[in-house]
Amino acid sequence: MSQQHGPQSAATPTISHIALSGLFIAALVTAQLTAAKVLAFELPASIPLVGPELILPGAALAYALTYFASDCYTELYGKRAAQIVVNVGFVLNFVVLALVWSTIVAPAHGSGVDPDTFETALGASTNIVIGSLLAYLVSQNWDVWVFHRIRDATGPEYLWVRNIASTGTSQAIDTVIFVSIAFFLAPTALGVGEALPLELLLGLMVGQYLLKLAIAIVDTPFVYAVVGLVRSRRDDESLETAT
Questions:
Q1: What number is the average pLDDT over the span 124-133?
Q2: pLDDT range class, residue 195, cuts 50, 70, 90
Q3: Which CATH fold would you assign to the domain 13-242?
Q4: Average pLDDT estimate for 64-69
């Protein structure tokens, strides 16, 4: 493997380094803030367990973008650098939650948004918070680990394999953990609502995963485009330095 195509050290931040880590955090924060809305996508045909439409939390779309960013980051900067971004992102989840809830409990002026509406829109319930944080911690670290293991086995080739395999498996882990905790285990243990029946839980898992897997497949050309662009800029910079 030539040096110019291997993971670059993240010791000296570059525009791509900052942009990809910024995209990851921006998508992560957006996922936290959009979790309250439930999305429904009509299907051309009914799917067993799922039915005629896909039901999923609004956070799913933004959250899918974090896997795109982390796969590009892992490919370009290596496993260790990607793990740092993922785990810093986990800590920043708590910062976002603290800032949102401090705003919710702060005194409201009468001319602003109704406090109850504001809390409903931005104040994720306990079961959603627990489920999303645990799902994030496990699935994102799994994504980085699997991506790196496949890269070790295949070298710089087959980027599409490691992108789809790492994202596909990590999205499955994320979906199972989140749905199980948020809509079954946490409501049962904490008494914060009714646990969904098993058939509905399976339907949510299958529906969410199908959409997430489709996004993982569709974003593969964009992963190639970002990685290729960054590597071409490295080559140009190397030539300028040499001359």
A1: 81
A2: confident
A3: Arp2/3 complex 21 kDa subunit ARPC3 (1.10.1760)
A4: 92
Sequence-distant (≥ 6) Cβ neighbours of residue 87 within 8 angstroms: 141
Q: Where are the alpha helices (DSSP H) in 106-158?
A: 115-122, 126-154
Q: Within its chain, how far is the Cα of 154 from the centroid?
A: 25
Q: Which amino acid is at 188?
A: T
Cβ pair 173, 139 in contact under 8 A: yes
Give pTM, 2 decimals: 0.83
Q: Could you give the CA distance from residue 1 to residue 180 in angstroms, rounded to a whole number?
A: 42
Give how far Cα 123 sits from Cα of 27, 40, 130, Å. 18, 21, 13
Tokens of 19: 């942009």
Residue 242 tokens, joined: 């040499």
Residue 139, token pair as written in the block: 């699935």
Please report where in the chains the tokens 């896997």 appear, as a residue: 67
Counting Cβ atoms within 10 Å, is residue 206 exposed (0-12), middle (13-18) or buried (19+)? middle
Look at residue 9 and tell me whether its pLDDT is greater than 60: no
Better-scored residue on pLDDT, 145 or 186: 145
Cα 216 to the center of its chain, rounded Å = 11
Q: Where are the domains of the chain?
A: 13-242
Residues linked to residue 54 through DSSP beta bridges, in sequence order: 41
For residue 191 the two structure tokens come to: 């008494």
Indicate the pLDDT class of residue 1, thresholds 50, 70 and 90: very low
Residues in the chain: 243
